[in-house]
Amino acid sequence: MTDTMAAAGPVPAGPGGKSLLLGAALFAVCAVAVMAGARYGLLLAIGLGFGIALEGLRFGFAGPWRAMILRREPAGLLAQLLAIGLVAIVAIPLLAAHPAELAGAHAPVGWSMVGGAFVFGICMQLVLGCGSGTLVNAGSGNAVAAVALPFFAVGSFLGAYNIDWWNGFGMAPLVVLSGTGGLAVTLAGLAAVALLAVWFGVPGGARLPRRLWIAAAALAGLALLNLVVAGQPWGVVYGLGLWAAKGAVAMGADLSGSAFWSAPAQVERLRESLLTDVTSLTNIGMIAGAVGVSLWRGGLGSAVPGLPAKAWIAAIVSGLLLGYSSRLAFGCNVGAFFSGISTGSLHGWVWFVAAFAGSSLGIRLRPGLGLEGPR
Amino acid sequence: MTRKPVALVVVLAVAGVLALDTAVSAPPNPYQAPPILALGSGLAPGGAHCSAAGS
């Protein structure tokens, strides 16, 4: 989101401030490595990398979709497809070669999955932030994202709580595009979407600025590191739901009524430290990375826009729905779209179509909810 | 109001989540941590992911 800059403009951190930021990041990574283990310290570092790449290079998901739908500017979407393709080239063969050690973001296509992705698409345009975007925007001081984030976590917890009921509406068998053939189909699909985007885009709009080339390569590298280190792809939503679930348990809630949260694997996650949870660590890293970039640039001096009350209510409801719908959809733009497609899951493609359709609606709803500001 | 207090609140909220977690969770044991890389470890991935399709 674009905020009005304060009169003085951004004042980047001085050499001392920059050293302090680097030192704090290094200290946090080393502290987690010492307290929990080297893998977890490395995962925090990977999360920091995601946050720095996303905020520092202004790479996003919701904004580029908005640009494509409203102004037919395909560059941001093309950068997303490029990053996904780069990951797929390595990840799909890697998953085929090491099935016992690595897992893809594989999930079935189902009615609630499609509906969840559609609702997520609406809401990601309302708050102009998806899974990763909400974390990064909140870390960079975006008030709408900061308000939406806790409700995103609660929604993710509640969505997981009810996920088995929603799955009862019907799911198709799991389809995974694996091996050389699966990689070829995935790359052909990405190329087809890219060609469509260029075809529908404005003339000259397909030229990617340098920052997006760098961002796509950086995100691809970090996503592959995530897979190799954690044994699973980059994700966001599960970690947020776990935070809310831990809060609920701390307040005395009994989660035995949920088939999901009472499953042995989830009971173990609820008992174990967040410093050993993969998505929690990368989520924390993303927020911290965005804070660090904002401090480095001096970007926290810009003014928070004044919005009407209905906009803040819309942010709260959207946050809740972002979390809830993304669990039904088996992931957000990261866990389903980015990681699903790049590891060969058909649900990632279906998620993309449904969420893009939802985004078209969300863009139309945004002005009426006051989210474009008091104009 | 600028973005600074908003970012500060977000940082404090994350710190609060970690503090709560420290109070209610088992402390991590670095001596039982898995190898630094899952690839080549011979171990099945143990983490949870948002693509998990329920129980």
Q: Which helices and strands occur, and which strands form pairs?
A:
The complex is a heterodimer of chains A (375) and B (55).
Chain A: H1 15-36, H2 38-56, H3 62-71, H4 75-97, H5 111-126, H6 131-139, H7 143-161, H8 163-167, H9 179-200, H10 210-230, H11 237-250, H12 264-271, H13 278-297, H14 309-328, H15 333-342, H16 346-365
Helix pairs in contact in A: 1-2, 1-13, 2-10, 2-13, 3-16, 4-9, 4-10, 4-15, 5-14, 5-16, 6-7, 6-13, 7-11, 7-14, 11-13, 15-16
Chain B: H1 3-24
Transmembrane segments (chain A): 20-38, 44-65, 77-97, 109-131, 143-163, 175-200, 212-234, 240-262, 274-295, 307-324, 336-357
Family (chain A): Belongs to the TsuA/YedE (TC 9.B.102) family.
InterPro entries (chain A): Sulf_transp_TsuA/YedE
What does this structure look like?
- The complex is a heterodimer of chains A (375) and B (55).
- Mean pLDDT of chain A is 95; it is low at 1-7.
- Chain A has 16 helices and no strands.
- The longest helix of chain A is centred in the N-terminal third of the chain and has 23 residues, at 75-97.
- By secondary structure, chain A is mainly alpha-helical.
- Helix content of chain A is 69%, strand content 0%.
- Chain B is elongated, with a radius of gyration of 17 Å.
Question: Largest interface, per-chain counts?
Answer: A-B, 91 and 46 residues
The helix fraction of chain B, in percent, is: 40-55%
The DSSP helix count of chain B reads 1
The span between the termini of chain B is 45 Å
| Low-pLDDT windows of residues of chain B | none
Which oligomerization state do the chains in this entry correspond to? heterodimer
Shape of chain B: elongated
Total beta strand runs of chain B: 0
First-to-last CA distance of chain A: 15 Å
Keywords (chain B): Signal
Signal peptide (chain B): 1-19
Transmembrane segments (chain A): 20-38, 44-65, 77-97, 109-131, 143-163, 175-200, 212-234, 240-262, 274-295, 307-324, 336-357
InterPro entries (chain A): Sulf_transp_TsuA/YedE
